């Protein structure tokens, strides 16, 4: 791993401009992508969540760059414990799932569904739950069992959740009941 690149990740902050600068660095130097994904999936590294932030930014604008790393993302996604990494990976799963540029294998889809279900019923913050809901709603359009399960979970947890969760839940319920 390139130590100069690692130090740039380690010294980065959550500020949008800082993350955009790192994303732009990767666009100019794609040879660092392998290192970025290594850091992001090295869960005992204290900076792994910072790498996830940058991957999330890449997923927003250049999702095709994630293609060689989809298996890594799917395998690592359920293992994250850092709340900031959980939020980022949950959003990344949503972006990958709904992308028209990436075709997931059945195994990758299964992992995305399992991770999203775990996030939705677990004690994650509202944002990962909302991203998980939207990911599951995407798959529920073609999988009836998932639609039923999603409706049950949302309705069961609805009264105990934040306003943001409730707004997203109403939208998801409306979408999957059509």
Description:
By secondary structure, the protein is mostly helical. It has a single domain, classed as Leucine-rich Repeat Variant. The chain contains ten helices and no strands. It is globular. The model has no long low-confidence stretch (mean pLDDT 93).
Task: Provide key terms for this protein.
single chain, 178 residues, mainly alpha, Leucine-rich Repeat Variant, globular
Reconstruct the topology from this structure.
Blueprint: H1 3-10, H2 16-28, H3 33-41, H4 48-61, H5 70-76, H6 83-98, H7 106-121, H8 126-140, H9 144-157, H10 163-176
Task: Give a brief outline of the structure.
This protein has helices at 3-10, 16-28, 33-41, 48-61, 70-76, 83-98, 106-121, 126-140, 144-157, 163-176. It has 178 residues and is mainly alpha-helical.
Cα end-to-end separation: 49 Å
Strand content: under 5%
- Which ranges are low-confidence, i.e. pLDDT below 50, for 5 or more consecutive residues? none
Please identify the oligomeric state: single chain
In total, the number of domains comes to: 1
List SSEs in N-to-C order: HHHHHHHHHH
Give the helix proportion (percent range): over 70%
Shape descriptor: globular
Average pLDDT figure: 93
| Structural class assignment | mainly alpha
Instruction: Give the number of helices.
Output: 10
Q: From the 3D coordinates, which CATH architecture would you assign?
A: Alpha Horseshoe
* Topology, number of strands: 0
Radius of gyration: 16 Å
């Amino acid at each position: 791993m390139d130590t100069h690149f690692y130090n740039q990740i380690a010294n980065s902050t959550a500020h949008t401009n800082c993350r955009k600068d790192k994303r732009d660095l990767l666009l100019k130097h794609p040879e660092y992508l392998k290192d970025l994904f290594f850091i992001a999936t090295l869960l005992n590294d204290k900076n792994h969540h910072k790498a996830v932030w940058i991957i999330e930014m890449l997923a927003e604008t250049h999702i095709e760059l994630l293609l060689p790393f989809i298996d890594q993302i799917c395998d690592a996604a359920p293992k994250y414990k850092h709340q900031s990494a959980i939020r980022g990976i949950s959003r990344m799963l949503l972006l990958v799932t709904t992308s028209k540029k990436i075709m997931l294998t059945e195994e990758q889809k299964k992992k995305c569904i399992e991770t999203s279900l775990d996030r939705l019923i677990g004690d994650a913050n509202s944002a990962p739950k909302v991203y998980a809901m939207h990911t599951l709603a995407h798959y529920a359009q073609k999988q009836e069992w998932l639609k039923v399960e999603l409706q049950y979970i949302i309705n069961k947890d609805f009264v105990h959740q934040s306003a943001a969760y409730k707004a997203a839940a109403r939208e998801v319920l409306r979408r999957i009941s059509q």
